[in-house]
Specification:
DNA-binding, Tetracycline Repressor, domain 2, mainly alpha, about 0% strand, homodimer
Chain lengths: ~190, ~190
DNA sequence: AGTAGGTTAGTGAGCGTTAACCTACTAGGA
DNA sequence: TCCTAGTAGGTTAACGCTCACTAACCTACT
C-alpha cells in the first residue's frame, strides 16, 4: 500500500509535527526535511489533506499498538496500572509522536474533513483502556459498579489533562513526577488491588 | 482600561473564533466583522498578539465567573453536581464562547508566548472545582481520602474529554445526553451524598 | 516507449503589518 | 466667539512573506 518513499515522508512529517507543532507541518518543511523540493511531495501524495489522512492512518497502525502494549500482563492490577502510567509518561517525555497520538484531535482539528479518522483514533484508545478494565473487573480486582467505558473515559481524560497541564507549565518538572499521585488516586477510586 | 471599541472588537473576535475556529481569527475577519478596514484594528490593538492576550483576559474576567456560578448553593452535593453538569453542558451547546474558555489552551496554543495566560486560565478553572470539593468534603458529603485537587483534575479532565468526543461525533446527540451517566459515575466514585 | 520521480519557476490567495492620507471632534489662546 | 492645533479613528494602497499547488521540463530505469 505505502511505498518506502511514502513511509519516509510520513515519518518525517510526524517527527516535524511532534517537535514543532502542527503549524510547522507544511509541504515545504516536510519536503526539505527529506531533502527534496516541494513539488516532489506531490508525486507521493495528491495533496496535503491526503498526507494528513495518511499520517493518521500511520499513527493508528504503528503507534497505537505500542500504547496497548503498555499494559503488561504480569503483576497485580494496581502494579500494572502504575507501570502503565509510568511507561506512558516516560514515552510522552521522550517521543513526542505519542503526544500526537494522544492529542490527535486537538492537533489536526484544523481540517474538518479529518473528523471521522480522529474520532476512530480516540475511540480506539478508549477501547484499549476499557477492555482492560473489563478484564480486571472479572478478576474482581476493580470495582464493577461503574461501566468499564466510564472508567476508561475518566482515566484517559485525566491523563490528557495532566499532560496538557505539564505542557502549559513549561515541562519543567518531569512528567513522571505526576505519576505517583495520579496512580494513588486511581487505585483508591477504582478499588484496584 | 478597555474602550468601548476594544470591547466590541474582543466580542466580535470571540464570536468569530467560537463559531469558526481559531483558523478564522484573523485581523481581516475581525475587522470585517465589525465593519471596518484592517488597519483600523491597529488603532485599538498594537498587533495580533496583544489582541490574543486581551481576548484571554476578557474570557477570564467575563466568562470564568459564570463557570463558577454554575455551582449553586442549594440542594445536596449530588444534586448540585448534577445541576452543575447540566448547566455547563447546555451552556456549551448554546454559547460556543464557553468552549473557548474550557479549551483555551488547545485553541490558542499556536502562540507560544501565551502559555502563562493559558496556564492561569486552566488553573483558575481547576481551582473553582477544587475549592468546591474541599467545601463539601468538610460537610462530609464527599469522600476525603483523595485530595480535592485530584478530584478536580479528574472531573475537569473527564468533562473535557466528553465534550471533545461530542464534537468529534459531529454533535449529533445533544451534549446533555452525556450528563446523566457522567453524573451517576461521579456520585458513586466520589461518594457524593 | 513509457513511466516514476525528480527539477525550476511561477501563480494566486491569505496573512500580519505599515505608510500616507483624510476627516471630525475637541481644547485653548487671541 | 472664533481660529487653530492636536488627536482619535478611520481610509486606500501596498509590502513582504508563506502557503498549497501547478506547469513544464528533465532524466534514469524498465
Amino acid at each position: 500500500m505505502l511505498t518506502d518513499r511514502q513511509i519516509e515522508i510520513l515519518e518525517a512529517a510526524i517527527q516535524l509535527t511532534s517537535e514543532s507543532g502542527i503549524q510547522k507541518l507544511t509541504i515545504r518543511n516536510v519536503a526539505s526535511a527529506i531533502g527534496v523540493s516541494e513539488p516532489a511531495l506531490y508525486r507521493h501524495f495528491t495533496n496535503k489533506h491526503e498526507l494528513l489522512v495518511a499520517i493518521l492512518a500511520y499513527l493508528q497502525v504503528k503507534i497505537a499498538p505500542n500504547f496497548q502494549g503498555f499494559i503488561k500482563p504480569q503483576g497485580s492490577p494496581s502494579v500494572q496500572f502504575r507501570q502503565f502510567l509510568e511507561q506512558l509518561f516516560s514515552e510522552l517525555e521522550g517521543n513526542k509522536a505519542f503526544s500526537l497520538l494522544l492529542f490527535a484531535e486537538e492537533t489536526f482539528n484544523a481540517d474538518p474533513e479529518l473528523r471521522p479518522e480522529l474520532n476512530a483514533l480516540l475511540e480506539k484508545n478508549l477501547e484499549i483502556l476499557s477492555s482492560y478494565f473489563s478484564l480486571i473487573m472479572k478478576e474482581g480486582a476493580c470495582r464493577s459498579d461503574i461501566p468499564a467505558q466510564e472508567l476508561a473515559l475518566m482515566t484517559f481524560g485525566t491523563i490528557r489533562l495532566t499532560v496538557s497541564r505539564w505542557h502549559l507549565r513549561g515541562e519543567e518538572e518531569g512528567l513522571l513526577t505526576y505519576a505517583p499521585l495520579l496512580h494513588k488516586s486511581f487505585v483508591q477510586l477504582f478499588n484496584l488491588t
